[in-house]
Amino acid sequence: MGSMFRSEEVVLVQLFLPTAAAYTCVSQLGELGLVEFRDLNASVSAFQRRFVVDVRRCEELEKTFTFLQEEVRRAGLALPPPEGVLLAPPPRDLLRIQEETDRLAQELRDVRGNQQALRAQLHQLQLHSAVLGQGHGSQLAATHTDSPLERTPLLQSPGGLHQDLRVNFVAGAVEPHKAAALERLLWRACRGFLIASFRETEQQLEDPVTGEPATWMTFLISYWGEQIGQKIRKITDCFHCYVFPFAEQEEARHGALQQLQQQSHELQEVLGETERFLSQVLGRVQRLLPPWQVQIRKMKAVYLALNQCSVSTTHKCLIAEAWCATQDLPTLQQALQDSSSEAGVSAVVHRIPCRDMPPTLIRTNRFTASFQGIVDAYGVGRYQEVNPAPYTIITFPFLFAVMFGDVGHGLLMFLFALAMVLAENRPAVKTAQNEIWQTFFGGRYLLLLMGLFSVYTGFIYNECFSRATAIFPSGWSVAAMANQSGWSDAFLAQHPLLALDPNVTGVFLGPYPFGIDPIWSLAVNHLSFLNSFKMKMSVILGVTHMTFGVVLGVFNHLHFGQWHRLLLETLPELVFLLGLFGYLVFLIAYKWLRIMAAGAASAPSILIHFINMFLFSRSPTNQPLFPGQEVVQSTLVVLALAMVPVLLLGTPLFLRWQHRRHSRRRRQPNEDKTGLLDVPEASMASQGSDEEKAESPGDQEEVELVLSEVFMHQAIHTIEFCLGCISNTASYLRLWALSLAHAQLSEVLWAMVMRMGLSMGREMGVVAVVLVPIFAAFAVMTVAILLVMEGLSAFLHALRLHWVEFQNKFYSGTGYKLSPFAFAVEDE
C-alpha cells in the first residue's frame, strides 16, 4: 500500500541466464510474476527465433487439446478444474505428453468412428425391420391372388413379348419431409405404372448422427417392367432413400425379420461395449487433459519469453532485459539462484541505466482496485507521478452522494454492496458469467462507499424516500409565533399560508443540530431555500476540489526537481484561482456568518458584488459586506490578471535561459571531463524534467530546445487553465442540479404512487388490499428509476468531475502499466 500515493520505483535489469537453466529460471519468474521482459529481438521475424520449433510443438498440442475438449463436451461431460499448483513441465516431458495425447486422440477417433459406423448399421437394420413389419404386403396382396379375374389384364397385349411380365417390388425408408415429393415424382415419372404404399414407423428411431429420436416413412412400391424399375431406383437414390430387399412370400419375410431382430440385438450389445470403452477413454481425457492444458500453456509462455532474449557471443548463456520493481530485486536474485543451482552456474542479475521512461507499477487489493480502475480509465499515470486514486476513495463517493443524497436510497445501495462483499469468496459468485453482474461485483467496494456516503448526505438533506424525519426538535416554534402575533380564527381563515418571523422572540430557537430542519419540508418556499443552499454548497466544494488538485501538482514538481514550476506555474495558478473564485467562497461563508435574521431583508447580493468585481464598479442599491470591499476586489482582479503573463511567459523564458547557460558551459574546453562525468546525473534528472521532455528523456545537454514548441505548449496550458477555472467552477453546479433533480423525482414518485395509494385505502377501507400492489409498484419504480437510472447518471457526472475538473490540474496520464510475465494471466 506504500505505492498507492506514487508508483513504485522500477528499474531496468539485465539477466544472464545459463543455457542449461534458462528454461527453469524463466519458468520460476513466471510463477512469481516480478518482471516484464523487453524484446531484444524486435527486428527478428517470429519464424527465425531460437525456440520457434518448441512454440510450434506447443501449438500443435493445443490443437489436439481442443479436439479432445470438444469430444468431451460432445459427450455431455465437463472438464474439472486442475487441482493444486502445476509448474511448467521440463522440456523432456514435452515428448511424453505429445505421445500420450496423440495416442488418446487416435483412440478417441477410432472408437468414435466405430461407434458411428455401428450406429449407422443398427439404424439400417431397424429401418429394414420396420419396412418388413409395417404390413405393406397385405395392401399389395391383390396383385398375387390366384383369381383368374384378377390375373386378366384390362387390355390384352397385342404381341407375345409381354406375356411373361411379372410384378417386382422396391421397399425402403425415406425422411418424412421428402415422402410427399418422392411419391409425386414417382407417379409422374412412371406415368402411374406402379402401386406405392407409404407409412410412418410406429416407433421413433434414433438418428445415428444427432442421436435425437426421429420418425421415418417406409414405402413399398410394386411395378411392372425393368425400365420402370430402373427409374424407381434412380429416383430413390436421388432422394437418399434406404432401399432394402423385400421377399414376395410371407414366410420368407417373416424369417428375414427374425434374422434382422437377432442381428440388431447382437449389434446393440457390441455398441454398448463400444460406448463403455468410449466412456473409459473420455474418463482418461477428463483426468489428464486439465493439467496438461495448464502445463503446455505455461511451457509455451516460457518459450515465447525466451524468444525475446538474445544469445551471447559464446552461446553459453541467454541475455534478457526486464523491468522490475526495486523492492522485488532481492526476491528476483534469490529465485534465479535457486533455479540455476542445478546447472552449476548461477544466473546473474544487475541494474543497467536506461533513458526510456519506466512503466508504472501501483499495487492494488480488493478494496482499491475499483478506484484505481477509475483513474486508469482516464489514463495510466506517468512514472512516479502523483496517483489520484487514494484521494478518489473519498472524493468520488462523496461527490456522488452530494447528487444522490437520500437515506433510504443510500441504505438500499449500501445493503446491496454489503451482500456482494460478504459473498465475495463464494465460487458461484466469482464465476458468474453475466456481464452486468460482473460489473457490479467488480465495483462492490465502490458501491459500498457510495451508499454509505449517500446515507450521510441524506441525513444532511433530511430526506428519506423524499420524506423528512424529525430526529431532533425543530429550531422553529409555531406556538410562539401564534401567541405573539395574535392569530385569530378570522385571520387564519383569510390567510391559508402563514409566515414565521425569526425576528419575533421565541420563534427561532437556534440552528438544527444536524442537517436541514424538518420544518422546511412543510414550507412553500422549501425549493427556493434548497436552491440557494445547494448552489452555494456546490461552488464551495468545486473550488476546494480544484484547489486541492493544484496543490497536488506541487508534489509532482518537488519529486521531479522542477523547482521553477513552483514559482512560475503553481503559485500563479493558486493566486488566479483563489483570488477570483476563492474570494467568491469567502463571500459566501462571510455572508452566512455575518448576516443575521434581523438584517436578512437588506442583505447584499453576492452575485452582484462578484459581477461588479470584474467591472470595477459599484451598485448604490447593493451595500458592501465589509469596509474596503471595493479595494480588496480591485486588488484581487489586478493580481489575478497579472498572473496570466507570468503563466504564459515564465516557464519558456526560464527554459531558454537555462538552455543558454548549458550552451556556454559546453563551449568551455576545460570542462569537457566534468561534462562526461555528469552524464548519468543529467539523464536521471531528465526523467523528471519538463513534460515535453519526459516523453523522450536523455541528456539535457543533448536536447535541442525548440522555443516555439515550448511557447505553444505553455500558451495552450495557460488558456486551458484560465478558461477552465471559469468553466470548471460552473461545471460543479451539476452537484446542485442533480441533487435537486433527484429530490424532486423522489417527491413526484411518492406523491403519484404512495400518497395516492394511502388516500385510496382510507376512502375505500381496504388499506391492506390496496397497499400491497401500490407498495410493490413504488418499490419497483424506486429501484429502476431512482437507484439504477439516477444512480448511473450521478456516477457519470462524478466521473466527469474527477477526470476533467480535478485530475487535469496535476495528472497527465501519459504512462503505461508494468505488465509482468506471470502465469496467473495465462491460467485465466
Give structural notes:
The chain has 28 helices and 11 strands. The protein is of the alpha+beta class and 828 residues long. The chain is flat. The two termini are 25 Å apart.
Helix/strand layout:
Elements: E1 10-18, H1 22-32, E2 35-38, H2 52-74, H3 93-133, H4 136-139, H5 148-151, E3 167-174, H6 176-190, E4 194-200, E5 205-206, E6 213-214, E7 217-224, H7 226-238, E8 242-244, H8 250-306, E9 310-311, E10 317-325, H9 329-340, E11 348-351, H10 369-378, H11 389-404, H12 407-422, H13 427-430, H14 435-442, H15 444-461, H16 478-485, H17 489-494, H18 526-560, H19 563-594, H20 606-615, H21 629-667, H22 672-677, H23 679-687, H24 691-694, H25 707-731, H26 734-764, H27 767-806, H28 823-827
Signal peptide: 1-22
Transmembrane segments: 398-423, 444-461, 507-527, 539-558, 570-590, 597-616, 636-657, 764-789
Membrane topology: Multi-pass membrane protein
